[in-house]
């Protein structure tokens, strides 16, 4: 197997690991990546992630460090913070959280005490583990109560959310999740939070890039705290940010450091700064709107082929498909599509009678597809591949799956992915 020379030092020092990196580069190049939480970062973001900033410890915050030699590191972090504040229109930003789950844990540390009641969307309905779900530390250390979606519409019933909040009086209310295909009504959630004197946390990890690009309403005027990862639709490195009003700045910063973390990962901070700079450009606005346009067109194409979509479609980058009527489980479908070069993830659907590790649905998204330059004109073919792939997976037809994979590779050859070595 020949190896690309894109990582010559790695190849010389550790050929075994270099081979795995090369294999992943080929896999990301040759497959249609439809997992909505995945994307491609730019070469600039990749380069920033691998700089000598890796070599510095920087416990504390700019101007208030516990280590010397921070002359450049302070400027890097301040640049990332200033760019986050400008891009999202917030008063305060903390770019140090290592990832989304630690960022959410910092919110609990800042505003709640163990045993307090917290409220979020139930995991099987599309929420996140860290919104008080039982198997998470947030559900073990706090009293989690969950809202869901209506069985008939697949959408959040805000009257039910309000009734639950009035009954339970939570300290924190989370809005947002991991499998929500519809627009989040931040204003309505804020009104409910005010009524019960709760801190409203908008977890926008999935839609941060859409918000930055103006393709989804912003929580900034409504939420007390905004939590987000910096990858997914924002096309940055694997990191996170917490943003808030100035009145919460001290509590947030203290919770991140020293409450939960030691020194920040400075190379990641630099890559976040690059991604935020890229997201402030007009081209990113066009990208964010194209992500949504592609998702809506793909949803329509799937509906035309008789698929059942939770809530009947999408307003954002994400489609949640219920395969019950096809007689194929989500796991079987996802694994078959993977062999066909169409990468999705199996996922529970609201009120799913099946177990989470073998659920009824699959989750599909358009961020990575759009980053490759694919547009609305391509989604009919994508829907056809999904249709054929689900049927082939259910029937165990490996020949049909192989045929789809060849078609996928042929299309992607003409749409190279950002940040990957080009042959």
CATH superfamily of the largest domain: Type I PLP-dependent aspartate aminotransferase-like (Major domain)
Which CATH class of the largest domain? Alpha Beta
Q: In total, how many beta strands?
A: 15
Strand content: 5-15%
Largest beta-sheet characterization? 7 strands, mixed
Q: Estimate the helix proportion, in percent.
A: 40-55%
Low-confidence stretches at least 5 residues in length (pLDDT < 50)?
A: none
Number of helices: 16
Query: How are the strands of the largest sheet arranged?
Result: 4-10-9-8-7-5-6
The outline comes out as: globular
Main location: cytoplasm
Domain Serine hydroxymethyltransferase-like: 12-386
EC number: 2.1.2.1
Site (Plays an important role in substrate specificity): 231
Describe this structure in words.
The protein has about 425 residues and is an alpha/beta fold. The chain folds into two domains: about 50-280, 3-Layer(aba) Sandwich (Aspartate Aminotransferase, domain 2), CATH 3.40.640; about 290-415, Aspartate Aminotransferase, domain 1, CATH 3.90.1150.10. The chain has 16 helices and 15 strands. The strands form four sheets. It has a seven-stranded mixed sheet with strand order 4-10-9-8-7-5-6, with helices on both faces. The chain has a four-stranded antiparallel sheet with strand order 11-12-15-14. β11 and β12 (about 320) form a beta hairpin. α7 packs parallel to α8 (about 185-195).
Please summarize what this structure is.
InterPro entries: PyrdxlP-dep_Trfase (IPR015424), PyrdxlP-dep_Trfase_major (IPR015421), PyrdxlP-dep_Trfase_small (IPR015422), Ser_HO-MeTrfase (IPR001085), Ser_HO-MeTrfase-like (IPR049943), Ser_HO-MeTrfase_PLP_BS (IPR019798), SHMT-like_dom (IPR039429). This protein has helices spanning 8-13, 15-30, 43-49, 71-88, 100-111, 137-141, 158-168, 186-195, 208-212, 249-260, 266-279, 282-304, 330-339, 367-371, 379-395, 398-413, and strands spanning 32-33, 60-61, 64-65, 92-94, 117-121, 143-147, 172-175, 199-203, 225-229, 240-244, 308-309, 318-322, 342-343, 345-347, 361-365.
């Amino acid at each position: 197997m020949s190896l690309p020379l894109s990582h010559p030092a790695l190849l010389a020092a550790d050929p075994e690991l270099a081979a795995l990196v090369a294999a992943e580069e080929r896999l990301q190049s040759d497959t249609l990546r439809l997992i909505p939480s995945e994307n491609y970062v730019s070469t600039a973001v990749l380069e920033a992630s691998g700089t000598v900033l890796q070599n510095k410890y920087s416990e504390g915050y700019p101007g208030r460090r516990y280590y010397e030699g921070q002359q450049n590191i302070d400027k890097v972090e301040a640049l990332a913070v200033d760019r986050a504040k400008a891009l999202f229109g917030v008063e305060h930003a903390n770019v140090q959280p290592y990832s989304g789950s630690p960022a959410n844990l910092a919110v609990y540390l800042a505003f709640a005490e163990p045993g307090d009641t917290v409220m979020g969307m139930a995991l099987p309905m599309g929420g996140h583990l860290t919104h008080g779900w039982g198997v998470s530390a947030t559900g073990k250390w706090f009293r989690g109560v969950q809202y869901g979606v209506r069985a008939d519409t697949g959408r959040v019933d805000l009257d039910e959310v309000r009734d639950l909040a009035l009954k339970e009086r939570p300290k924190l209310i989370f809005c947002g999740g991991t499998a929500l295909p519809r627009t989040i009504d931040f204003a309505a959630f804020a009104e409910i939070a005010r009524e019960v004197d709760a801190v409203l946390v908008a977890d926008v990890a999935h839609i941060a890039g859409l918000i930055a690009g103006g393709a989804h309403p912003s929580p900034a005027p409504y939420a007390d705290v905004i939590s987000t990862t910096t990858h997914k639709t924002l096309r940055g490195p694997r990191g996170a940010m917490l943003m808030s009003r100035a009145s919460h700045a001290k509590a947030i910063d203290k919770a991140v450091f020293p409450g939960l973390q030691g020194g920040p990962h400075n190379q990641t901070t630099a890559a976040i700064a690059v991604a935020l700079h890229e997201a402030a450009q007009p081209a990113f606005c066009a990208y964010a709107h194209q992500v949504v346009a592609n998702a809506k067109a793909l949803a329509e194409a799937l509906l035309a082929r008789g698929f059942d979509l939770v809530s009947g479609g999408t307003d954002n980058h994400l489609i949640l498909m219920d395969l019950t009527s096809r007689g194929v489980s989500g796991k079987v479908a996802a694994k078959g599509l993977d062999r066909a070069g169409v990468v999705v993830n199996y996922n529970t659907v609201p009120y799913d009678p099946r177990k989470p590790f073998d659920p009824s649905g699959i989750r599909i998204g358009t961020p990575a597809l759009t980053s490759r330059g694919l547009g609305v004109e391509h989604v009919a073919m994508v829907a056809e591949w999904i249709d054929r792939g689900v049927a082939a997976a259910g029937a165990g037809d490996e020949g049909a799956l192989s045929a789809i994979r060849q078609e996928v590779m042929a299309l992607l050859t003409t749409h190279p992915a950002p940040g990957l070595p080009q042959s």
